[in-house]
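Q: Could you write out the predicted structure for this multi-component system? I'm mainly interested in how the pieces pack against one another.
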Amino acid sequence: MQAAVAMLSGFGLAVVTGGSSGIGKRFLTTIREANPKVRVCNLSREKPGLSDDVVHFPCDLADAAVRGSVFADVAAWAASVDAGRMLLINNAGFGTIGPFPEPKMRQHGEMIAVNIAAMVELTGTLLPELRRRGGAIVNVASTAAFQPMPGMQTYAATKAFVVSWSVALAHELAPAGVQLQALCPGPTRTDFGRRAGFDGHVSSALAHDVDRVVETSFRALRRGRVVAVPGVINGVGAWLARRLPLRLAAVVAERTLRRTGSRGAGAATAAGGKGGADA
Ligand SMILES: NC(=O)c1ccc[n+]([C@@H]2O[C@H](COP(=O)([O-])OP(=O)(O)OC[C@H]3O[C@@H](n4cnc5c(N)ncnc54)[C@H](OP(=O)(O)O)[C@@H]3O)[C@@H](O)[C@H]2O)c1
């Protein structure tokens, strides 16, 4: 909390996507607790169920037409907030498990829309306001970004996009006083696994609570880190994965996915077997 308090001093507003549960909800509550003066809004289908101080923009981020109109409303809301720096947290996202194109082709397109298009378009829409005020952008990626993942191929590729895009944007926006972070959690106890089709026992001893993930993000923002990986084990795993040849990294990822156990991963790869992991 100390890092969030220090980081958010001087901030006037925060825009969060996917604040109705999990990591996004924890971001919302942390911001509210760390600096109650910060005006906060959320974009997701469900309401976060927090106080009415959190302005809710209901929207399905997989729908391009909805994104266009809601993002314009969010920009107008942001412009109406008097003063202060701005924090944008592109957190909404989901994954699926199974050999491509399972479980359903449509879900792969929606994953690209929510995990990538929504982040790019919302950031672009809010960029004039971000440049004017200064501030920070957190894009929630995953440790899945660091290697190709048979069984979660589309999800891992969307998160690789998030990391690459964020690091490039960090470079472009530094002179404007806008800080960028690609936050790369490993397995985290949220609804993600259930929604992705894991069988539930992915909440292993190695999985983090959302508090730990959000705390790592604020601490890394304070230190100016562009890529933030919560936890030493995740950090070492990410470091190793980036040093392996891509095809070998994919083999290791596929075996890890099977070893950690889920009903979906048994059929997820050409090698077969049983398994699955959070991402
Ligand atoms: N949990 C993990 O193990 C883990 C690990 C690494 C990275 N991540 C990443 O962390 C981020 C947050 O996930 P989480 O773990 O907190 O999972 P979660 O509890 O399932 O939360 C996902 C959030 O994304 C929103 N969302 C999903 N699809 C949406 C859509 N079509 N339109 C609008 N909002 C949508 C959901 O809101 P509605 O359903 O209300 O729309 C929800 O608020 C994701 O980007 C995920 O990829 C998670």
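A: Regarding packing and overall arrangement: The pocket of NAP is lined by residues 18-24, 44-46, 60-62, 91-95, 114, 140, 142, 185, 187-188, 190-192, 195, 278-279 (CB under 6 Å).
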